[in-house]
Amino acid sequence: MSLKTVKNLNIPDLSHNGLINNLKQIVFQLDSNGNFIFLNDTWKTITGLPIAKTINRPWLSFIYEHDRPKVEILLHQISCNKEKVNEHFKCRLYIENKRLINVEVFLTPLIDIKDTKGFIGTFYDITEHKKTELQLEIQKIALESVDKSIVITDPNAVIEWVSPAYLQLTGFNLEETLGKTFKDLVYSGRQDNTFYVELWQTISANKVWEGDLVNKKKNGALYDEHMTITPITDTSGQIKHYIAIKEDISQRKASKKEIEELAFYDPLTKLPNRRLFLEQLKHVVLTNHREQSYGALLFVNIDNFKTLNDTHGHSNGDLYLTEIASQISNSIRSTDTVARLGGDEFVVMLEQLGHNSQKAISEASNIGEKILALLNQEYCFNHIKYRGSSSIGICMFMDQYNNAEDILKRADTAMYEAKNAGRNTLRFFDPVMQNTLEQRIQLEKELGIAQEKQEFKLYYQLIINNEQKIVGAEALLRWQHPKQGVLEPNEFLSLIENNGMIIPIGDWIIKEGLEQLHRWQQSETLKAMTLSINISAIQFQKENFVSKLKTLINDLNINCNNLFLELTESSLIYDIENTTNKIDELKSMGIRFSIDDFGTGFSSLSYLKSFKLAQLKIDRLFVRDILTDQDDLTLVKTIIDMGRNLGLDIVAEGVENKQQLQILQTAGCIKYQGYWINKPMSEDKIHALIKSKETPIH
Ligand code: C2E
Ligand code: CA
Ligand code: CA
Q1: What is the extent of the structural domain holding 369?
Q2: For residue 337, what is the enclosing H or E element?
C-alpha cells in the first residue's frame, strides 16, 4: 500500500485510516510548498497515475495551465486569511496521457500557531456532471433560438438535433434528418471538394467556420445559405459536437442582385447600361485585336425623341423606348450586344466581322440600315400611332483604337454627322470607310439602271489548243460605266450576287452569249468555235434555270455541242440531287460543263467524278507562278494528271507568256487561255483579232 508518512509535520497521519482509500474522492495532503505528500488510493483509480510518482511533486503541475492562476490566487488567499478555514472551487486536472478531468476541489489549510504548514483537501471528479451541464448548455442555446435554423451534430457531422426552423427551411421532417449528415440531405454539388476540405480543416482544429454556400431543399430547390459552425469541446478540449447556425440568404442575395442590376442595367429596358457596356466593349476590343477581326460600334440616337415626350408624355416615351429596345435586341445576332446609354441613346456592338474591311463595313452598314428601317416603322402603343426615325454613327475597330471610350466618342461623332445629313441615316466615323460605303451605295444605285441603259457588255477571251489553234472563247461580263469607263466583274459582281440582281443580269448574259454563239454557228469560218459562259451559283440554283436556257436554245436553234457552261465548285455542293438532275438534263442536250477556278475551292475529286463534267479549268493563281514556284508547278502537274485520268479536257487560265505555255504543255495540258493570247475584248475586236491571226496564232 502506498500510504506515505509525512515527516517533520505536526499534522494528522492519514495513512492509518483504512477507510480513506475507499472514498469516492481523492484525498490529498500538500506540504507548505504545495507538493503532494499524501494521496489516497482513489488517486490511482481516477487518474491512472502511480502514487509513488506523484508524491513530492507540486500539485499545481497537475492542474490545467489555464486554471493555475486562479488556483494560485485562491491558495494564497486561504494562506493569508486566517479566518477562512477552507476553500472550494472547480478546476481541471491532468490525468494519465495528458488528459483532463473536471474536479471540484475542497481545500483546508493546516495551520499551526503562526504559519500554514500545508493543506489537506479532496478532488471530486465532476466530469460526468460537466457533460450533463454541456448538454444543458447546448439545449439552452438551441432553445433560445428556435426561430433560427440550428443543427447540432456529433464530431462526425451526424445530426443529433435540429431546430424546427431548420426543418421548415429544408422541408425534411425530424425522422429524415436525425442520424443523417448534411451530405445525405442538402448537398447541392455547387461547392467543390476544396471548399469542404477547408471547412473541415477549420472546424476540426476547433475553430469557428463561417461562410456562404448553396444547398438543396428536399424538393430539389437550391437556396443560398449563410452558415456558422462552432465546435463544442469537452473539458479536455476534445470536440464533442458541432453547432451549425444556418440562415437562408436567398432573399438577401436576390436583393444584392437587384442592386447590381441597378448598377449595370438600365431599369427601363433591362439592357446593359453605359458602365457595363464599356466593360464589354473593352473586352471585345482586345479579342478583336488579337484575332485581327473587325468589330463595329453603332451609336443609335432616336430622332426627335424630345418631341414625342413633350407631346405624349414621359410614360409614353418610356413605352416607345422599351418597344424599340426589344426590337433592336431581336434584330441582331446573339453574339452582338445592345445597350442603352441613357435617354434616347442606344449602342449596338458587332463582334467578329472578319478581317476583310470591305465585308465588315458592308455588314455593319447592313445592320445599321436594318435598325434604321426598324425604327422608321410605325409603332402602336397606348392607342398612339407613332413613326419615328433614328440617326446612326458607326465606328469600325480592329487595330486603330484600343480605348473603348474613344470608340464610343467616334461613333457618337459620326452619329452627329448622320443628324446633320438630315436624320434617318447612318454615317461612318472614318471618312475612308464612309467613302467606300457611299461608293458602294452609289454603284448599287447605278447598277439598278445599268441593264435598262444597256451598259452591260460581253467581252471575249480566246481559248487555244496545243497546236495553237483557236478553238473557242469565254464570255466575260463588262460594265460600260458612264463615268468610270469599263468596269470588270470584281468591282460589282459580289454586289449583284448579294442583292439578287445577278438573276436578270445572268439571264441577259446567257441570252447575249447564245446570240453570239448563234452568229458564229451561222459563219462558215467560225462555226467550230465553242463558247464558254460563266454561270453564278445563285443563278444555277434557280428552279427555272434549265427551262429558261432550253427555251433560248430552241428559239435560236443552237447547236449545243459548242456550248460550255462554267460552274464553280460552290454550285455543286448544295442540293446534290437537284444539281445532278439539272446537269444530266443539260448534258443530254449536248451541253458540256466546265469546272472553273479549280484548286481554289473545295477541289474535290469526287465531284468531278460524280458529275462527269467535261472540262477542268486550272485557276490562273496557280499558273501565275509555275515558273518560279516549285510547289505551284507540282500542284498544276497533279491537277493535269488527275484530270486526264478522268478523261477531262484541261484548260489553263491566265497564261501570260510563252514559257508558261511551254511548261504547261510539257505537263500535259490541253488548252490555254490568257493575256499572252488576248485580253478579253469586245465582239468586234475579237473578230478582227481572229481574222488577223487566222490559224494558228503566234
Ligand atoms: P474567271 O471565270 O476565272 O475569268 C477569268 C478572269 O481572268 C477574267 O477576269 C479574265 O479577264 C482574267 N484573265 C484572263 N487571262 C488573264 C491573264 O493572263 N492574266 C490575268 N491577270 N488575268 C487574266 P474578269 O473578266 O475580270 O472576270 C473575273 C471573274 O468574274 C471571272 O473569273 C468569273 O468568275 C466572273 N465573271 C466574269 N464574267 C462573268 C459572267 O458573265 N457571269 C458570271 N456569273 N461571272 C462572270
Ligand atoms: Ca470562267
Ligand atoms: Ca477561272
Answers
A1: 265-430
A2: strand 337-342
**What nine digits make up the cell of 252?**
438577401
pTM, two decimal places: 0.52
Does residue 517 sit in the same domain as residue 560? yes
Ligand 1 pocket test: pick from 451, 620, 621 the residue with the most ligand atoms within 8 Å of its Cβ.
620
Which of 96, 94, 102 has its CA nearest to residue 65?
94
- Tell which of 76, 98, 131 closes a domain: 131
Give the confidence band of 310 by pLDDT, cuts at 50, 70, 90. confident
655-663 CB contacts, 8 Å cutoff, 24+ apart: 655/623, 656/624, 658/698, 659/627, 660/623, 660/626, 660/627, 663/626, 663/627, 663/633
DSSP states along 648-684:
-EEEE----SHHHHHHHHHTT--EE-STTT---B-HH
Task: Give me ligand 3 centre to Cα 1, in Å.
Answer: 118
Q: Which atom of ligand 1 is nearest to the CA of 476?
A: 38
Q: Torsion-angle region of residue 33: left (phi > 0), alpha (psi -120 to 50) or beta? A: alpha
Instruction: Assess whether 413 and 462 both reside in one domain.
Output: no
Amino acid residing at 63: I
Q: Is 491 in the pocket of ligand 1 (CB under 6 A)?
A: no
Write out pLDDT tens, residues 132-184: 666 666 665 655 555 678 888 888 898 988 888 889 889 999 889 988 899 88
For the chain, the domain total comes to 4
DSSP annotation of 443 reads H
